[in-house]
From TrEMBL:
Name listed for the protein in its UniProt record: Spondin domain-containing protein
Organism superkingdom: Bacteria
Gene3D superfamilies listed in its UniProt record: F-spondin domain
Region spans: Disordered: 172-199
Classification lineage: Bacteria, Pseudomonadati, Pseudomonadota, Gammaproteobacteria, Alteromonadales
First and last residue of the signal peptide: 1-22
Spondin domain span: 35-155
Length: 233
């Protein structure tokens, strides 16, 4: 069975190659966007061979559920079913722009790598992701700036449908109630159906029409979208 977890933009202190062993770690995640939310986070410690997703490969059904609708249940089950450990939904809901979740504690056991995913809302299939970061054995604090990725499962039309179910075109409604309606759709000529770096949101300033249902003054973003701080005890 193929096991698929993200590549991040790393700007970390001391990220040289180290042999890894079990460690108690503390994780914090900050939403760096101006007006977007993260759906429930999945923070996972796992072995070196497991991946929640991999850039350049086709998204799994579990990744699609998370990237299009914020559902982390299947990814969580895949990690724990392979002897990994997780913290699922530590925010108990959405993580708003500029907000952080901190002091998420994980006893990694025999697991040596860390991954983090959450949907960026509202988007068609963008997700913030850290993929298989090797947990250092040296105690200290390590900081990473993490990109958003496109699952490649849905065109980025920026049209709100209010549903948020995987496989249903369109995106969930903007949590802040600041989305528009009646957009004609962004013309996305990309045919990349594999997981890839997300180009960001365009939006427009017409709440009752235009090409996008997203407000460019609120929802537009570029990478990186999250700051992750890991403290190895």
């Amino acid at each position: 069975m193929k096991r698929t977890l993200v590549t991040a933009s790393l700007m970390a202190a001391g990220l040289f190659s180290l042999p890894t062993l079990a460690a108690d770690i503390e994780v914090s995640v900050t939403n760096l966007t101006h007006g977007n939310h993260f759906t429930p986070l999945l923070i996972a410690a796992h072995d070196a061979d497991s991946h929640l997703f991999q850039v350049g490969t086709e998204a799994s059904a579990a990744l699609q559920k998370m990237a299009e609708g914020g559902d982390i249940a299947d990814l969580d089950a895949a990690v724990t079913g392979n002897a990994g450990v997780t913290s699922a939904n530590p925010t108990m809901g959405l993580l708003a722009a500029g907000m952080s979740v901190s002091e998420v504690m994980l006893d990694t056991g025999d697991n040596t790598h860390l991954s983090i995913v959450a949907m960026v809302l509202p988007t068609n299939d963008a997700f913030v992701g850290l993929d298989g970061w090797e947990i250092p054995t040296e105690a200290g604090t390590y900081t990473m700036y993490v990109n958003a990725y496109d699952a490649g499962t849905e065109a980025n039309d920026e049209i709100i449908n209010g549903g948020g179910m995987s496989g249903v075109p369109g995106i969930p409604a903007a949590p802040g109630g600041d989305g528009g309606a009646n957009g004609t759709g962004v013309m996305d000529s990309s045919d990349n159906s594999n997981v890839h770096t997300h180009p960001g949101v365009l939006g427009d300033m017409d709440p009752a029409g235009g090409m996008s249902d997203l407000d460019s003054r609120v929802h537009r973003w570029l990478n990186p979208v999250a700051k992750v701080v890991v403290t190895v005890k």
